[in-house]
């Protein structure tokens, strides 16, 4: 039995549209979205360097 829900992360070298197209090709449709900041430690201080975007994918019925 395969998973019905998985998270797809938008890669650094792709757009959100690219990620959504990848989901579609794999047979999933978006059902949610979340964003998390990615920090880098610079001299003991956490500095935000980019935003990680993830889409929740639900398997489309066949």
Structurally, the number of domains stands at: 1
SSE ordering: EHEE
Distance between the termini: 15 Å
Strand residues, percent? over 45%
Low-confidence stretches: none
Number of strands: 3
Radius of gyration from the alpha-carbon trace, in angstroms: 15 Å
Sheet having the most strands: 3 strands, antiparallel
InterPro entries: NETI (IPR025930)
Protein name: NETI motif-containing protein
Q: What this model shows, in words?
A:
This protein has 62 residues and is α+β, with helices and mostly antiparallel strands. The protein has one domain. 16% of the residues lie in helices and 56% in strands. The chain has one helix and three strands; from the N terminus they run E-H-E-E. The protein has one helix at residues 16-25; strands spanning 5-9, 28-42, 45-59. Strands 1-3-2 form a three-stranded antiparallel sheet. Strand 2 (28-42) and strand 3 (45-59) form a beta hairpin. 6% of the residues are buried. The mean pLDDT is 92. This is NETI motif-containing protein. InterPro entries: NETI.
State the main characteristics:
single chain, 62 residues, alpha+beta, three-stranded antiparallel β-sheet, 16% helix, elongated, NETI motif-containing protein
In short:
The chain has one helix at 16-25; strands at 5-9, 28-42, 45-59. Strand 2 (28-42) and strand 3 form a beta hairpin. It has 62 residues and is of the alpha+beta class.
Topology:
Layout: E1 5-9, H1 16-25, E2 28-42, E3 45-59
Antiparallel strand pairs: 1-3, 2-3
């Amino acid at each position: 039995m395969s998973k019905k829900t998985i998270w797809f992360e938008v890669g650094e070298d792709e757009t959100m549209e690219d990620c959504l197209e990848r989901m579609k090709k794999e047979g999933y449709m978006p059902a949610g979205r979340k964003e998390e900041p990615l920090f880098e430690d610079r001299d003991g201080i956490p500095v935000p360097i980019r935003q990680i975007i993830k889409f929740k994918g639900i398997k489309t019925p066949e």
